[in-house]
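Sanity check

After download, print the first record. It should look like this:
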Amino acid sequence: MANEAVDFSNVDRLVHEPSRAVILSVLAAVESADFVYLKRETGLTSGNLSTHLSKLEAAGYVDIEKTYRGRMPLTLCRLTPEGRLAFENYRLQLMEFVRNTRE
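Expected structure tokens:
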């Protein structure tokens, strides 16, 4: 067990929500992703994915572009620099948490 308590109080709660953390982890691995790809990779329903993406967009973490491919609607999502930084900070916090609980 760790000798000191791990302070997880400063974690970004927007990122810490499991569905949003999964969305951000997928987007961190690609330049951009369309809605269908994100839906398949995250396992979220269309409604849940849309809601979480809206929250991430409102926070400035995700940029959403609605366009068309031919006549079909196409929603492209990408991490903003702020979103990439927020996710990287969150990832480092989790790694520190795991490291401290193993000691």
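If your output differs, re-run the checksum step. Summary of this record's structure: The chain has a mean pLDDT of 92.
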